[in-house]
Design a protein that fits this description.
The chain is mostly helical. The chain is built from 13 helices and no strands.
Length: 228
């Protein structure tokens, strides 16, 4: 049936995007969006947002990804899983306000261990952007433990990639996180995330990480303001 084809083809397209097989992905995504538009049921209209969001994230078009996540979240409960993707784009892009907005949008998610792990991962990234590295370290350590306990290696590897992107944790811990994430991404053929990991690691000699550099700039600016 059309509903089943929509679900399976959407997931297949997500896999293609995450493996870097972008050829024809945009056209296929638009075709699926056209099919979904014919349904009144919102759960079917949400689906095509997923491959497009991931496509924008892996292409580094983070502002566009945030905008699309904001748009999708207006569809209500069925769109709640767009929030973690939008938050990841915001955290990688250093937009704490947008990341906090995604976290707020995720509050309607069904309670459970996975939901707690998703929320903790978002909170850790936000803490790093806000210049609270000790809070970020505690939250990331907790999130990593939760993903390991849940046996969800994709979410675990993405959390580890967040750590590299934000410059959280100590250098040895970041290196271990990077090695583990790389091993998983190589196994599943997620080439865009391997490239993202390499780019984030290449920035480390100049700073502790992308978010770490932003935090240092903010702290320097605050210290330079004369006291009253």
């Amino acid at each position: 049936e059309v509903r089943e084809r929509l679900w399976f083809e959407t997931l297949a397209l997500v896999f293609r995007v995450l493996r870097g097989e972008a050829e024809g992905a945009r056209a296929d995504g638009e075709r699926l969006a056209g099919i979904a538009a014919g349904f009144d049921d919102l759960q079917y209209r949400v689906g095509p947002y997923l491959p497009r969001l991931f496509e924008l994230v892996v292409a580094g078009q983070l502002t566009d990804a945030i905008r699309l996540a904001d748009e999708g979240l207006k569809l209500g409960d069925f769109a709640v899983e767009l929030a973690p993707i939008g938050a990841r784009a915001a955290i990688w892009g250093g937009d704490a306000a947008a990341a906090s907005r995604m976290l707020d949008g995720y509050k309607i998610a069904r309670p459970g261990r996975r939901t707690d792990a998703v929320r903790g991962t978002m909170e850790a990234g936000i803490a790093m952007l806000e210049g609270r590295p000790s809070d970020a370290r505690r939250l990331y350590a907790d999130a990593l433990g939760r993903w390991q306990d849940l046996g969800l290696p994709t979410w675990l590897a993405l959390c580890q990639l967040d750590i590299i992107e934000t410059g959280a944790l100590e250098p040895a811990e970041r290196r271990r996180a990077a090695d583990e994430a790389r091993g998983f991404f190589e196994r599943v053929g997620a080439r865009p995330f391997i490239e993202q990991l390499d780019a984030a690691l290449a920035r480390e000699p100049a700073a502790t990480g992308s978010a770490g550099a932003r935090t240092a700039v903010v702290e320097s600016a605050v210290e330079s303001v004369p006291s009253t």
